[in-house]
Amino acid sequence: MYIVAINGSPNAKGNTALMLRVALEEITAAGGEGHFMQVSDLMTKSKVPYCVACSNPCEGNCFRNTALEEAYNLLRRCDGIIMGSPVYFCTVSAPLKAFWDKTRFLRKDKALLNVVGGALAVGASRFGGQETTLRSMQDMMFCQGMTVVGDGFIDYDSGHLGACAQRPVEDDRDGLIRTRILARRVLEVAQATAGLRAHRTQGK
Ligand SMILES: Cc1cc2nc3c(=O)[nH]c(=O)nc-3n(C[C@H](O)[C@H](O)[C@H](O)COP(=O)(O)O)c2cc1C
């Protein structure tokens, strides 16, 4: 199982990154393969920083032969995505939104249909909009036909929306525990639903 951790924070070594690294640690410990994706690096190098709806349907012209296209090609073959964002005014960061808008190119191929998705968020405040940020990410994933899961796992409890934490995340024990549970959940559902992604290799 190949799981991509998407870091929506412009800070590659910040709180969101730490949560995603912990999630990937859990994925690899359970036998999965993980990849960390720093979207701000991709978006700042992009000649068109956000979708301007230049073609209908999207032809992917703005990222052809770039690192961003390579990143989208990784998503085309992944089994699961753990999407992380810092809370920015109770929603996702701008680079994450810009990155995801351009996945419109993948949508017509149903490239993310049945890919399993989980979300995690970290804010400066204890109750600073982590859950609304999770919901924004989940909505973004639903629109690609992804199978969105929360942080429930048989060895723990039924969970809630995903993993929420307060900065500094290394001091947020519960936030890190929920991150590990979320990772387990994404992996187990990805394993159980592998057959639902067969359309990607069958050219459907
Ligand atoms: C533009 C901006 C908006 C923010 N809005 C919120 C907010 O609404 N609620 C909150 O709790 N923290 C907010 N924060 C704080 C970040 O969510 C917090 O610092 C987070 O831990 C950063 O994660 P990072 O270290 O991965 O970049 C905001 C920070 C920035 C830069």
From TrEMBL:
<dbReference type="InterPro" id="IPR029039">
    <property type="entry name" value="Flavoprotein-like_sf"/>
</dbReference>
<dbReference type="GO" id="GO:0016491">
    <property type="term" value="F:oxidoreductase activity"/>
</dbReference>
<protein>
    <submittedName>
        <fullName>Multimeric flavodoxin WrbA</fullName>
    </submittedName>
</protein>
<dbReference type="Pfam" id="PF03358">
    <property type="entry name" value="FMN_red"/>
</dbReference>
<keyword id="KW-0288">FMN</keyword>
<dbReference type="InterPro" id="IPR005025">
    <property type="entry name" value="FMN_Rdtase-like_dom"/>
</dbReference>
<feature type="domain" description="NADPH-dependent FMN reductase-like">
    <location>
        <begin position="1"/>
        <end position="153"/>
    </location>
</feature>
<keyword id="KW-0285">Flavoprotein</keyword>
<dbReference type="InterPro" id="IPR051796">
    <property type="entry name" value="ISF_SsuE-like"/>
</dbReference>
